[in-house]
Specification:
Helices cover 75% and strands 3% of the residues. It has 306 residues and is mainly α. The chain has a domain of 204 residues. Strands 1-2 form a two-stranded antiparallel sheet. Helix 1 packs across helix 5 and helix 10 packs across helix 11. The N terminus is likely disordered.
């Protein structure tokens, strides 16, 4: 009788072990997608925090970064990681141009002006990409997708691990730039009190341009990583930018730390709910999470600007 009971318990233990592996695998997947959301949302929240502009065209910046990296890897045959850095630089310069030509004239005007302008820019860039590249989805070949790693029952490709590592390094670099450099401190000063920073000798114009360039560069990095994980196509930025707005709202407008926490929370929620309920509703999970967070913390997870 004892032996029968002991044997009966063996499948239960294996089942629990399998369930835990699935949970940890979904957590890992959530961290990966959360890393992409994080980079997009950081750019959004920085631009809003300093320029006070809601940029609906940020998803198209993400898309341009992906196409830039795709062109560099496929046509110039340059290594993926180097293509990511080049895409960040190219799109950063484009960001300065967009800030100077598109958004600079409407700074200080009602926020709705910037929203409508950025929405129009979003439509223009999407259709321009459709004209240039057609609607066929393509994938960035990183060279790491075939290398599979297994650790403690968890499986991932080197490509997915690279997404986590690159995103983490960029977030750390951003933190040290904002906290330790003179320009970073100037950006924080403008966020807290624009007039006082200007009186202290900070060039508001240069800070605006720098912020937009950095925000666009982070979106380009996310686009390169997203294009390697998924596919590249003209409207690829719509869903990620909506999710990133959810992240920015949850984290608190203009709050960098809040955006990082909220991005990971959203990625984990989507992955866990998708794995145990259904991936068909993964977009709904994002907005349900937003409602729950705002009911508990109306000012955002962290609140205030940081």
């Amino acid at each position: 009788m004892r032996n029968r009971r002991w044997v009966d318990q063996i499948p239960q233990r294996q089942s629990r072990g399998d369930e835990m592996e699935i949970i940890f695998q979904q957590i890992l997947n959530g961290v990966i997608i959360g890393s992409v959301y994080c980079l997009i949302a950081l750019g959004l929240t920085m631009i809003f925090g300093i320029l006070e502009v809601t940029n609906f065209a940020h998803g198209e910046i993400y898309m341009i970064g992906a196409y830039t990296s795709l062109f560099i890897t496929s046509q110039l045959e340059i290594h993926f990681l180097l293509s990511l850095l080049i895409a960040m630089a190219v799109v950063g310069v484009l960001g300065v141009f967009i800030e100077r030509v598109v958004f600079r004239p409407i700074l200080g005007k009602p926020m709705i002006n910037g929203m409508l302008l950025s929405f129009g820019l979003s439509i223009f860039l999407t259709n321009l990409a459709l004209l240039l590249f057609k609607a066929d989805p393509r994938k960035i070949e990183s060279g790491y997708s075939q290398v599979r790693l297994t650790f403690a029952g968890l499986q991932l490709t080197l490509e997915r691990l690279m997404v986590i590592i690159v995103s983490t390094l960029l977030v750390i670099a951003l933190y040290f730039f904002i906290q330790k450099t003179k320009l970073g401190k100037a950006m924080r000063a403008v966020t807290q009190d624009r007039e006082a920073a200007q009186l202290a000798g900070v060039s508001i114009s240069n800070i605006f341009a720098l912020t937009f360039a950095m925000g666009c560069s982070l979106a380009a990095a996310a686009g390169s990583l997203g294009g390697a994980l998924f596919t590249v196509y003209p409207s690829m930025g719509w869903t990620p930018v909506l999710k990133s707005f959810v992240v920015v709202i949850m984290g608190g407008f203009g709050n960098v730390a809040g955006a990082i926490i909220a991005a990971m929370l959203l990625g984990l929620t989507e992955s866990l709910c998708g794995g145990f309920i259904s991936y068909a509703y993964k977009d709904a999970y994002a907005f349900l999470l937003l409602v729950v967070v705002l009911l508990i913390k109306p000012e955002g997870i962290v609140g205030g600007r940081g």
